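Homework help board

Subject: predicted structure for assignment chain

Our instructor gave us this sequence and asked us to write out the predicted structure in token form, then describe one feature. I got the tokens but I'm not sure how to describe them. Can anyone check?
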Amino acid sequence: MSAEGLIGLAAAIAVSLATVFPGLSQGKTATAAMEAIARQPEAAGDIRTSLIISLAFMEALTIYGLLVAILLLGKL
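My token output:
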């Protein structure tokens, strides 16, 4: 396999892993937050704030994966 083929494969793997796993963890986090709000409605504001901050960090990981893929494709 040529170097260009390996770089293309690495870019594809970077994008796919950086999208799938944060997406799964965002779903799991949102489910846990909704369950916590259902159990303690009075704490909904604090839970919502923590949820939004954690979702932002997970989304940042996705953007970093996309950036790595773009940098790899720039080497082709």
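Reply (TA_rk): Your tokens look well-formed. For the description, you could write something like this. The chain has two helices and no strands. That's the kind of observation they're looking for.
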